[in-house]
Amino acid sequence: MSTMTINGQSQPLPADADALLVDVIRDQSGLTGTKFVCGSGVCGACTVLLDGDPVVSCLLPAQAAAGKRVTTVEGIGAAKLHAIQKAFMANDALQCGFCTPGFVVEAAAFHDRWRAAKGAATPSREEIAAALSGHLCRCGAYENIFRAVAEACAGRFDGDNVASPRLEARDKVTGAARYTVDIRHDGQLEGAILRSSAAHARITRLDLSPARALPGVAAAISLLAADNIVRYVGAPIAAVAATDRPTALAAIAAIGLSSEALPAAIGLDAARGADAPAVFTKANRKYAGNVSEGGSSPASWKGNVRGPSAAFSKKGKRAKAWLAEAKERRDPLLVEETFRVATQAHACLEPHAAVARFDGDRLTVHVSTQAVHEVMEKLGKRYKLAHDKVRVIADHVGGGFGSKGSLGTETIAAIELARAAKAPVRVAFDREEELSVTGYRPGAEIKVGLLPSAQGALKALSLTAHADTGAATNSTIAALARLIYPAEAKDLVDFDVISNLPPGAPFRGPGGPPMAFALEQTVDEAALRLKVDPISLRKRWDPDPNRQRLYRWAESLDVWRNRKTAASQSGRYRRGVGVATGYWLYLWQPGSTIELAVTGGRIVAKTAAQDIGTGTRSVIANTVAQAFDLEPQDIEVCIGDSNLPEGPGSGGSRVTASIVPPMLVAIAKLRAEIAKSAARPPLAGSNAPWRDLIAASPDISVSAERQKDGPPAPGITSPLKQAGLMGMVFGWMMRTFNGIVVGAGVPSSVQVMEVEVDTWLGHARVLNAYTGLAIGKLAAPVLARSQAVGSVIQGIGYALYEARETDPLTGHVLSSNMEDYRIPGIGDMPRCEVHFDEAGFDHVPGGSVGVGEVATIPTSPAIANAIRDAVGVRPTEIPIRPDRIVAALNGRTAA
Ligand code: FES
Ligand code: FES
Q1: Number of other residues whose CB lies within 10 A of the CB of residue 205
Q2: pLDDT tens digit string along 768-781?
Q3: What is the rounded CA–CA span in Å between residue 497 and residue 495?
Q4: pLDDT digit string (tens) for 9-37?
Q5: Strands 587-588 and 189-195, sheet pairing
Q6: Are residues 483 and 515 in contact, defined by beta-carbon separation less than 8 angstroms?
């Protein structure tokens, strides 16, 4: 048998016995709905049906499908949408959508089996988790996936098609959504990158000619920096473009290379030693990466240690003196602790990827990016191309979480190879590259000292953070403690420890989760010493009006009011409840512009923003539809293309706050223009029949740029103003060098977690997660909830499981696959309740600010405080692994 059928079409089998089914489906059949992520059977993204049974196509030789029926996601709903697809759409069981085809195929098979055996009974949460346990979703859409599968199995979606709160949901559940890795141009070549196997070396010879001489190789280029030094394992050296990936990899292997080994300093402890070899000399510090979302602030360097950065201290010397005196006199209220947090990988399911094509002097690049406009500007500058000669496109982006905000090697390599080869070139990182060299949230060591006064006020606070930034700088952890819990004196000091490891990168609320892990546990410890309820103490110490409302919500929760003390529990399993607070800055991007048009009787909204799973399309469609009494699906939304009017980057939770305000202005303009052109203008003050007026309107276009905010209500101020002169300087730098404004008011989150701890095996499990969020009015409420819940599960991963491990001798990343880098699965998902407090941002036109960062910041300390509540010992290191809990229970430290 030399054929198989794919979605009913006969397909020849490849002659190559090693060819994998996933490659035949994607490359030969062009069915790009099936995704390739881990390549090792761990994530489920490549799941298809083989004669009706789900299989992972990344492990199956294509020849094993001889004579069989293969059904991909495109085939699942080919005739009409499957009930599971409708349920995913209606329940918003997806965000970026990259994992969605795999989930849909597996869940559809489960649904069909379930219905055949059990009719319209509802499967339990455990049954659904067991069925989908082979799938991973980095956006954390699990909660809504549970609901979608349960409702579909119960027959709720047997009827007609349904609407979705997410505008592009249908494309994502049917596999029609196209991501950068799915782009195929005629004659497109495949690029691959030669990377350093040494942690520190000078490249003395790079000979590309053997690679260029291989049949099928169209181009080979150097990616070395001017100093020819590689500073970490995986640093890019060269790139090739060839007709296919095996040929490109053979060409990489053929490149001639000589190098001189340099001494390396690997990891935080080795790099800050007095004799540690320097990673950067003064002259080449410009090659260091940046782990923050802001520009690099000046700081001194001593060896590999950059800092102290202490500009956000307040009476720092006094704080130090008070803490030292309290230690001297053994003040029982003094809390001192050292916390360690692990390095967290972004682990986006769509890898970093770019496809570049030149048409004459015009460059078009599809990039998996969080910033189409900014990348276009950077490319224009780098290659001296006018804006109208560069176009950056990102229709759909399979996750970013901060790692896809800048101009990356994948984009530069694709462009330079395309130019050299005179053909389109795709560069897509493999999973090892994705988990090794695309950035991470730096691990850190954070020392905290906190001293309440005898009267129970917060007198002095000190945080000293050493961040393990790899070949990068600019971490901000301790400084973030300035903007919460005012104290008489604060000593807040940040250090970067630079080493021969891949550079860190911004990651969802950069610096926020490690700061909160340390500070929020210290505040809880102070509450124990003061014998005060932890929420009451936060209410006393934290005057922020947004958080005051959230504290009142949190203390009213039954789980909080009815919690048991650790002393009252016995037996193997103990339960605990913990609370923690987080905040993020309200950011917006000046210059963000929305164009609204009536084209052919339909409203079209355009801006060069992108949707990385956060719901940008839906925010736009909802806002416009509401103003014209239409349905969101009536609005055509064009984003993800730098040819559109300037839009904001998806970073720092700034998209909604940047585009909703100008959209309101544009809406008002468009209404006026439509009314003006109407045959019978609507009466002033009347409810205009917009649908009819729009249908009859000539083509019109208006636009508006992000305006300033109005005056904030009394009590709402800029957090940077509260931080004094340095806060103002920081605000000025953000605006001048990053084009981002820090607005008044503080998006905030208070979380309460209930955990169960197995005191024999040390396993901690989050049972219930309660998240209170003050982020203003909700432009897309269902999607805001999805994002909040996704942030919580990512925070659970940070607290309990995730740790990027490196070899301390060689600098190799050891956890560069998805078996060894453990992200949460559906079985780790607790029940989640989200409370939105919509007040506090009336000065922002539209009243909405972002949710993505703030919802993940307090999760790890809330879990740690709950574990402390359950078992009476405090976890000072994350991930809070079982061996660490067992060791702490036995009064020792884990290895
Ligand atoms: S890509 Fe096949 S299981 Fe992950
Ligand atoms: S929606 Fe699952 S990975 Fe993004």
Answers
A1: 9
A2: 999 999 999 999 99
A3: 6
A4: 999 999 999 999 999 999 999 999 999 99
A5: unpaired
A6: no
Distance of CA 122 to the CA centre of its chain: 33
Tell me, in angstroms, the distance from the centre of ligand 1 to residue 289's CA: 31
DSSP letters for 619-632: HHHHHHHHHTT--G
* pTM (two decimals): 0.96
Q: Which of 672, 614, 115 is nearest to 397 (CA)?
A: 614
The string of pLDDT tens digits covering residues 355-372 is 999 999 999 999 999 999
Helices then strands (H, E): number in the chain? 26, 36
Residues 440 and 541: their CA atoms lie apart, in Å, by 32
Tell me how far apart the 2 most distant CA atoms of the chain are, in Å.
85
Is 613 touching ligand 2 by the criterion CB < 6 Å?
yes
Q: How far is the CA of 650 from the centre of ligand 2 (A)?
A: 16
CA angle, residues 619, 513, 891, in degrees to nearest 5: 145
Ligand 2 atom having least distance to the Cα of 140: 2
Looking at residue 295, its pLDDT comes to 66
Ligand 1 touching residue 103 (CB < 6 A): no
Query: Are 472 and 280 a contacting pair, CB within 8 Å?
Result: no
* Integer CA distances (angstroms), 788 to 453, 771, 774, 833, in order: 36, 8, 11, 10
Tokens for 590, please give them. Answer: 């000046």
- CA 322, chain centre distance (Å): 40
Q: For residue range 637-695, what is the model confidence (pLDDT) as tens digits?
A: 999 999 999 999 998 789 999 999 999 999 999 999 999 988 877 777 677 789 999 99
Q: Note if the bond before 308 is cis, omega within 30 degrees.
A: yes
Residue from 349, 370, 783, 793 to probe ligand 2 pocket by mutation (most atoms less than 8 Å from CB): 349
- Distance (Å) from CA 53 to ligand 1 centroid: 16
Name which of 345, 169, 349, 45 is nearest 786 in CA terms. Answer: 169
Distance (Å) from CA 794 to ligand 2 centroid:
12
3-state secondary structure 147-201: HHHHHHHCCCCCCCCCCCCCCCHHHHHHCCCCEHHHCCCCCCEEEEEEECCCCCE
**Angle made by CA atoms 450, 538, 586, in degrees to the nearest 5:** 100
